Amino acid sequence: xxxxxxxxxxxxxxxxxxxGIQAKxxxxxxxxxxxxxxxxxxxxxxxIHNGFGLHTFKEELTGPxxxxxxxxxxxxxxxxxxxxxxxxxIAREGNEKIVTIMNREDGLVFLRxxxxxxxxxxxxxxxxxxxxxxxxxAGIYTAGTAQRLVNMEGYMPGREVVxxxxxxxxxxxxxxMTLEGAKVKVVAELMPYSGGLQRNIVQCLxxxxxxxxxxxxxxxxxxxxxxxxxxIAQVDENRKPIPGTEExxxxxxxxxxxxxxxxxxxxxxxxARLSPVTSGPVVNESLETSVEGVxxxxxxxxxxxxxxxxxxEAGRAGSHAAEYIRDWDKDRSRDNKENAVxxxxxxxxxxxxxxxxxxxxxEDTVTVRFRVGRVFQDVYVSVYxxxxxxxxxxxxxxxxxxxxxxxxxxxxxxxxxxxxxIVMKVEEA
Amino acid sequence: xxDVVIIGAGVTGSAVARELSRYQLKTLVLEREEDVCCxxxxxxxxxxxxxxxxxxxxxxxxxxxxxSKKMKAxxxxxxxxxxxxxxxxxxxxxxxIPKLEELRERGEKNGVEGLxxxxxxxxxxxxxxxxPDVKAMLYAPTxxxxxxxxxxxxxxxxxxxxxxxxxxxxxxxxIRAMEGGYRITTGKGVVETKCVVNAAGVYADVWNNxxxxxxxxxxxxxxxxxxxxxxxxxxxxxxxxQLPTKMGKGVLITPTVHGNLLVGPTAEDxxxxxxxxxxxxxxxxVASQARLSAGEVPLRMVITSFAGLRATExxxxxxxxxxxDAPGFFNAAGIESPGLSSAPAIGEYLAELIAEKLQAKKxxxxxxxxxxxxxxxxxxxxxxQALIAKDPAYGNVICRCETVTEGEIVNAIRRxxxxxxxxxVKRRTRAGMGRCQAGFCSPRxxxxxxREWKTSPLTLTKAGGDSRLLTGEK
Lengths: 429, 474
What we know:
Helices cover 22% and strands 35% of the residues of chain A. By secondary structure, chain A is an alpha/beta fold.
């Protein structure tokens, strides 16, 4: 196979597809999307519920339908892609990157490219990482694995279900399992608020009379071969179980929806700086990581709750990668990192993406996405440039489960003199 | 009529089986689980102890030192991962240094080579992450780490290739002496044999007490562990023990042969011989004890926790050999730590006793070598290319965390005593043993298992028995 490219995109899910489409439209001809599964579309293929695309297409599509819109565009644009292909490594060689791939047909191959877009998505936090005590029987699945088994393989992972964690996939699976005849007995959430979207709590739990117990966790798993029951207990403000509040639920299945972790093993090995908060790469306004010519978008960058935002963000990564390739021969020594201004988040804001802005490189505006660390009501989100407040936006409600965004204007950031930091914070009304 | 029936396909039973397979004997291994290595052998520290712990002259001391010395050659012969990384015993108080000296002397009496007490700066030169409170440590260069699954599987496979039969899902229900041997009733019928090897782990007292008046009493001693991500695997190089104090026996921090970091175990005597559940208190204890050795041990990177049961006999030593009042009934009982380290020596010791008893001759066609499943994650590019050229399935990655391919999984299923369950595949290939803990690969591995065994996915289990993975069709 051909082994030099201008752009390699790692991942053929919603992020990789949108990045590829935009890069091609911006003039990148020599590109390749690498996908480990046997079809494009990524995790959307197993998300057969509707509600995708409201922002982008103003319609409620299912996951596969949403993915198909992008797959169709990619086919029209004749973007090359390889399926069933695992990327084993990405390394630097001068300004070029060497991408090591493996599949059945080509074997192990080293590809050389100018730019890379990381679009590997994320994975679910497993039981082990939660350190839940008890036995280790069959019947413990992450919600996403259960979703794959039901929607793609056509099998039921269980009949009587307890769900730990109220992330969106857990909520969706509570409804899905119920519709397939299973009994979902309870959803326990460690935090005093849900990690999922409000609309999913209403449509997936309340509409089916499934109780949601906030500030609860699993304290014991019973069953030596298959799960026979789960004990949950209330937790105190330090998230420690309160003795005496234990409740036993007889069940054969425990589903976990306890958080998603961006899949950054390749980025880490490549040497891209990772954020301890997002677990994704630290990026600038161009969505470029600390490794020149390596861009990131979608859930590998930070976990999104709406795919529309993934597609939009990925499109930007695609355009920026195209610019980078266009300027390949340009002297980049001027682009030193000293010109990058850090966005400092405080007062309840956990992180922002991007984390850095180079004002002279930004377009007229830049969208900054962020999440808060707890539930806020009737507050302002403010942005300061030094002492000067350049943005002050009212928010009726903000919750950790819902991603927020602000648009910063170049004119606000570059006005008068140097800029050493930008501060974003929540302020009481 | 069998010459020998071995009860239990853990590391001890498998070691005896492998050594017996050198002789012209008809041997059968009975295992109540669906695979080898399902009890204590799968949930322990994965350590090859140097041998300074046990009292001089005890069976533990003799077998440990002998087993440890055999391990390297065995790992080459049977192709399983073993590394001599050396072990350290930390001492946190000046006043305890004499105890460290005592340990060294004991080790020297046991025949452990190269023991040395390290003090001062060199402590942190050897292990930079150790606590500043360490006053001295005993260094045992012959201490090592091993993959307990692969050690057990390798010995069992090799025994099987050399003619030993294995009967899985076969629970022993009764043993009676009969003329010239024993009659063993199992869930699958009756077998008769001249000799019995009792390698039944925490149940070894039950079978011994059926036939012998020298009663044994085995208490399961639970040990809880946390396994950490490979990103934490180089936190320490050596296996780091703590000198037992009045605060308890202490826990160890060790790299595994596969590059993870393992922390544990607790030690709690329990009644339930099946009580392999972890507990909140146990896991907390693992964490707090480990922090004594190294305050920065990155416990946030835990990927799984588990508990194992040590088969502790009341005399606290291994019971090895023919029961005095039950001719032909050979015990391998009370095999707690250092049982894994001792297994190769115990196997040889018992096999020789049995061969002598039965006047058995050695085979001329014994196959001593065994090749493991190729490991793509550790192979060079040229090796990977060669593997894929021979079988494209080695290019198809199934487990993304550990880079395990379809070729490796198929190999694990098709080889002697091949994997039948998700855990069986996991122990042989590491598919599902990484940081996502099989979230990604389990549906894919299930598909391969169903295809290879020509069965419906509905019949597949996590680990045999009633551990079904699916409850029905949609």
